[in-house]
Amino acid sequence: MAALSPQSSAGEIVAHLRTIGSEENRLGMVRYGIKIERALGISHGVQRQIARTIKRNHERAFELWDTGIMEAQFIASVTADPKRFSAADARQWATSFDSWDIVDGVSDLFVDTDAWKELIEEFAADEREFVRRTAFAMMAWSVVHRKQEPVATFLGFLPIIEAHAADSRNFVKKAVNWALRSIGKRSMEMHSAALAVAERLAQSTDKTARWIGKDAVRELTNAKTLERIAARKG
Fold it and tell me: What residue ranges of the chain have pLDDT lower than 50?
């Protein structure tokens, strides 16, 4: 089989993926709550290496996505062009989300698109577990990706976090918690606002909201966390 290159077709990439998949890796994924029905058993590190080798190709990314293979879909998300990726594309891809790992991987792409804020609001309101998780994964990723974004944008996410903190579904509540902690660690200004939300949730009568709040309070009041935040600019 020829080595992969930027000229490789979707079919050639998938054929390569099938040769390096590992049943042992597939079974190991189960321990992390990852669905393996569509997976070949290839580590994220190897997937990212393949994505770097084949480079960005927007049209081919959609061909890879349409295979339904988890690893091909992750590579599709890394090699698609976020500037050409529309809100409609994001909605279409989100319809097939069925595992937290693909959500978190693809959310990395979504947050780089022009429609990212619109999608966060829309996906948070969506009752599907993995679509709603997408909204909060995007919030968390946006803290990293959107370095020039005004503080007001992130503070605007806090009411959405609070509104869905009682969603007890495992993959939603963990993403809500992730988003709250991430926002709180971006800057001292955002830390105060996020901590206030966390403290309110920690006193909630709802079990899920209380867990999210207490866990976030624990991290946001940790001395080492506070040192890292204070050392940042902005």
Answer: 234
